[in-house]
Every structure is written in structure tokens, then in C-alpha cells.
Specification:
heterodimer, A: alpha/beta, Rossmann fold, five-stranded mixed sheet, 12 helices, globular, B: alpha/beta, 32% helix
């Protein structure tokens, strides 16, 4: 089933659902014909898109708003905060081409602060599915929820078979291990999965945690990783501030525990624009580069601990 | 009501006549139908004039007028901008340029659902500086929302200066007409002109309507009219008494209390 098939089936089942866009139709090309007046395209006007979604929700509709992550979360940020957030309306914001998926578009199109911005809004839920399979599960789940949601659109194919159905606030343990825990979300779950295989080849048993939602956050998965493994590595296509690395630090602080944290994220700059495989390689996020970086981080950790024991 | 903290009284007085007329003669909404699916909607996008709306809603029985004594009390929700804790207020506002978009969503749903109710939005003239108003104007025309009516409270001032001295807005009707709207211009303090105008809605089938209402900031109180420094007023108890006396035909009040700097 495709993304637009899933949106259609959700709308077909629930007459409250309307699908909206700011002329970002590539992934939903058939919906105007299939949904009729319940497909609303406002043109390239993200502020009006979000404000109108709030108005539709006031009337009892459940708008699923498909737009480019950058312009949806940033051009229209104050409309999301003020009209959707303050009123806590069940508007579902789907941000396409988020994170690395903007590929060669360049910094104008890089949404690598979207998670931080959205989770700042009281009551807003944030979901970053690992692949298309998880995304289709997630969209069905969040469409039926009363809260506003932001979801990173992710059409990449699954690298593995998911073990558990999508439940907001419940992370998926993809691999077990205690040498290191890799916490990640979204399109990098795939790269991390392959990195875990490479670490295994090097004799390192890595736990892989697919966070799935960043709000609500699975605190137990974070605390378990901190307590049961030698090092927590967060991997995200997001700025280091405000994303998963920050969340782990906040959770650790709230529970008054120390965590050995090694964040892999973007800090102080945007990423190099290129096709995805090339970005992964040159930003050190390919499976092999990730495995190398995590091994190095573990080695540095061991060295420091060795010094401390002297 | 402006005792102990003040309110945006100049901006409220410019559209008080419009708001009263809308509730008295135009809007199909009453306290008992305030959540009915087929009611008419009023969105106050220039949210700082909410005292005019508070007073009107209280007079029409949406809530007990005694509640106005709670103005600015942390135990109630009668603060400087509208919010849905007050019966009759459809949506919060204060950030300018939002409610035309929200009203579009409501108007779209009414169309989708086959309803005949209408959606009114009061915007300030200074608010027309916001790009989102014009974005919404394009979208409303594109979607042929003839159940949507924007009323511009054209009092000639934005917060601190005359609009035409800063970012000139005229010709306002021509701008909206160029965006695909049907337009009208009236004296926003002349009830017979309002009657003639609002009964013609929608002005053209298939087009959203805009009514540019020429108004006077501080209308009704010569001592406050046209004064940029009387946009927000925190009056003393004595000044309130003399202003009420002026409003009811007494002499012109002297207002000397310091304007409060809220923006």
C-alpha cells in the first residue's frame, strides 16, 4: 500500500478527515480525484494552510496536512504554535523532505531543527517513522488521536521487519546488546541497522533503539540504555540542540542519573547538499562510517575510564 | 473596565458600533445557539479591541455582565486579548493576520457540509501590513468562499502612528478587488449605511466580500479621539467617571494619566 492509498483509506473510513497541502502533490497526486472536496490545496501559502487547518478542525474535521517540512514547520511556525497549539486542535502535520531527505536541495530546504521546534509546542506530538511501513502504521494511529501531531514523512523502504506495532511513546528495540546503545529515529534507523551488523563483525554488541516518537518519549528505553550499556550514542539528522541528544540529557537530568552520551548530529552548520547516499558518506552517516565512529567513541570511553582507574 | 491595568480603549471604540450592529442585526447567533453547527461566526482578528466584544457579548447575554469586574484578574480569562474561555468568543487572537486563515477553514467546512451559515472576520487596518492577510485573500478568492466576509476597521491608526504615514494602505477596496473580492465602503458609525450594506451580502455569488468601514479611533469620546497615545489607556477612577459623563453628554473629560507602554 502506498502513502496516498493509506491516506485515502483513512479518509474513506473517517468522514472527518480532510487532506490538505500547499501544492506539494508529488506523493498525493491521485487524492484530488479520489477525495473531491475533502482534498484542499491552498497553493504555496503555508501560513494560510495551517490557519485553515485550524479552522477546519474547529468545525470537527481532522486535517492531515502534507507539506514540505521546512516551510511547514518554519514559515508557518507561529500559526502552528498559536492556532493549532494553543487551541490543541487535532491537526496532523506531515513534513516531507525532512532531515537528510532534502538531499541536494541545499540549506534553504533542510529541516534539521523541525523536531526541536515542534516539541517546544505544549501538547504537540512528534513522530519520526523509520521507513514507509512504519509510516503507514503511524499515520493511521495519529489520525485517530485527539492531539496535534507532527510527523516526518519517510518513504524509504524498510531495512528489516518491525517487531512490534506502532504505539506512540513506545520505542522499538531492534537489536539487543550491552556494549553500546544506539538511539535513533527516522531515515537513519536504516543506516544504524546496517552499522550494528558491522559492529557485530568487530565483536561489539550494540543495542539498537528505534525511538519512533520523540514526543511522547519512551523514557524507560532511554534509562535502560543509560543503565545497561557502556555508552549511549544518539544518531539523528537534526541539529544537536533540541533533538534526541537533548531529550536524552533532559531525561537523565530529570531522573538524576549520569549518562555516558555521544551525540552524532549536526552542530553549527547545515549539511552538504547531495544525493542521499553521497550525503550519508560525506557526513559520516553511512553504515560503515557510523560503525567506525561508534567504535572510536567506545575506545575513547574505555581509555578515559582506564585513566580514571589509575 | 479599564481601571486597574487598562485596556486598548481607543481601538475598541472605533469598532464598537460595528460589533454591536453585527450582533444586533446580522449574526445568526445567540447565547443558546453559540455552539450550533449552523450559527454565523464572528472572528475578531484585531484581538486588542476585545473590550468592545466583551461588552457586546455581556449585553446580549452570552455571559453575566458582572463577570466584567474580573477584568485582568488571574482567576478569570478576561485579559487583553480574546480567548475561548469567554462564552461567545470563537477563537483566540492577538497575533495579527491569523484569523482570516482560520476563518477560511471554517468557511470551507461550511461549504463542504452544505451549510448556509456565514463567517465574519474583523481585521484592523494596521493588520493589513501582515502578509498572511493577503495570502488568505488570494486563497479565499481561489476557493470562491462567498460565505466569508472581512470587515476592515479603518480607523486610520496602527499602534503608534497613522497608517498612511508608515505603510500606506489606500486604495484598500481596489487592492481586495484585484485579489478577486467583492467590495464595499461604509461609514462604520452610521447604522443606516451598515444596514444597507450588510443586507446585500454576499455582494457577488462566488466571491468573498470585504467591507471597509471608515471609523474613528476613540469614537464617542472627544477627549480620546484620533489620539495615537490613547490606543492603550490605563485610566484613573476619576477619569473613568468623567469619561462616562462625557459619553452620556457631559463635558469633554480631561485625561492626564500616563499612557501605559504595553507594546
Amino acid at each position: 500500500m502506498t502513502y496516498q492509498d493509506r491516506l485515502f483509506s483513512i479518509a474513506d473510513t473517517d468522514p472527518r478527515v480532510v487532506v490538505m497541502t500547499a501544492e506539494n502533490r508529488a506523493a498525493i497526486r491521485d487524492l484530488p480525484r479520489r477525495l473531491g472536496s475533502r482534498f484542499v490545496d491552498v497553493g504555496i501559502a503555508e501560513q494560510t494552510l495551517v490557519g485553515a487547518a485550524a479552522g477546519l478542525a474547529l468545525r470537527g474535521r481532522v486535517p492531515i496536512v502534507h507539506s514540505l517540512a521546512t516551510f511547514l514547520t518554519m514559515r508557518a511556525f507561529e500559526f502552528i504554535r498559536t492556532d493549532v497549539g494553543i487551541a490543541h486542535l487535532p491537526v496532523k502535520l506531515i513534513g516531507a523532505a525532512a532531515g537528510l531527505l532534502s538531499e541536494a536541495n541545499g540549506p534553504t530546504h533542510q529541516a534539521i531543527e523541525d523536531v526541536a521546534l515542534m516539541r517546544l509546542i505544549p501538547g504537540m506530538r512528534v513522530c519520526c517513522p523509520a521507513d514507509d511501513t512504519e509510516m503507514l502504521d503511524a499515520i493511521a494511529s495519529i489520525a485517530g488521536d485527539d492531539a496535534p501531531w507532527y510527523m516526518r514523512y519517510n518513504p524509504r523502504p524498510a531495512a528489516f521487519r518491525h517487531r512490534a506495532p506502532f504505539v506512540p511513546g513506545t520505542a522499538e528495540i531492534v537489536a539487543e546488546g550491552t556494549d553500546v546503545a544506539i538511539l535513533t529515529y527516522g531515515c537513519l534507523v536504516r543506516e544504524c541497522y546496517r552499522a550494528v551488523e558491522r559492529l557485530d563483525d568487530r565483536g561489539i554488541a550494540a543495542r539498537l533503539v528505534n525511538m519512533r516518537t520523540l514526543e511522547p518519549i519512551d523514557e524507560a528505553a532511554i534509562l535502560d540504555a543509560a543503565r545497561q550499556t557502556g555508552l549511549v550514542v544518539t544518531v539523528e539528522d537534526h541539529f544537536a540542540t533540541g533533538g534526541l541528544a537533548t531529550i536524552v540529557a533532559e531525561v537523565a537530568a530529570a531522573h538524576e542519573i549520569a549518562v555516558r552520551l555521544h551525540p552524532i548530529a549536526f552542530a553549527g552548520r547545515w549539511f552538504t547538499p547531495a544525493l542521499l547516499d553521497d550525503v550519508l558518506e560525506c557526513e559520516g552517516l553511512s553504515p560503515e562510517r557510523l560503525a567506525q565512529r561508534i567504535k572510536l567513541a567506545l575506545a575513547a570511553r574505555t581509555t578515559i575510564r582506564g585513566h580514571l582507574h589509575v | 473596565m479599564s481601571a486597574g491595568g487598562g485596556c486598548f480603549i481607543g481601538a475598541s471604540l472605533s469598532c464598537a458600533d460595528l460589533i454591536v450592529f453585527l450582533y444586533a442585526s446580522v449574526l445568526h447567533v445567540r447565547p443558546q445557539t453559540r455552539t450550533a453547527i449552523d450559527r454565523d461566526y464572528l472572528f475578531l482578528s484585531k484581538g486588542h479591541d476585545v473590550p468592545a466584544l466583551y461588552g457586546t457579548l455581556a449585553d446580549f447575554g452570552f455571559f453575566d455582565a458582572q463577570r466584567l469586574a474580573n477584568h485582568l484578574s488571574p482567576r478569570d480569562s478576561i485579559y487583553w486579548h480574546p480567548n475561548r474561555a469567554i462564552p461567545g468568543i470563537e477563537f483566540h487572537s492577538g497575533s495579527l493576520g491569523h484569523l482570516p486563515a482560520v476563518a477560511i477553514g471554517v468557511a470551507m467546512d461550511i461549504k463542504m457540509s452544505g451549510g448556509a451559515n456565514r463567517v465574519f472576520v474583523i481585521v484592523g487596518d494596521g493588520e493589513l501590513n501582515e502578509g498572511s492577510v493577503w495570502e488568505a485573500a488570494l486563497v479565499a478568492a481561489a476557493h470562491k468562499l462567498d460565505n466569508l466576509v472581512v470587515v476592515v476597521d479603518r480607523n486610520g491608526f496602527q499602534a503608534n502612528v497613522r497608517t498612511e504615514d508608515l505603510v500606506p494602505l489606500e486604495p484598500i477596496e481596489a487592492k481586495f478587488a484585484a485579489f478577486g473580492w467583492a467590495t464595499a465602503r461604509i461609514d462604520g458609525h452610521d447604522f443606516s449605511e451598515m444596514e444597507g450594506c450588510f443586507t446585500r451580502l454576499p455582494f457577488e455569488p462566488g466571491k468573498p466580500s470585504v467591507i471597509v468601514a471608515d471609523t474613528v479611533r476613540g469614537k464617542g469620546l472627544a477627549s480620546l479621539e484620533h489620539r495615537a497615545d490613547r490606543w492603550f489607556v490605563a485610566l484613573t477612577a476619576t477619569e473613568i467617571d468623567t469619561l462616562l459623563d462625557e459619553l452620556h453628554g457631559g463635558g469633554v473629560a480631561e485625561v492626564t494619566s500616563e499612557p501605559r507602554i504595553v507594546r
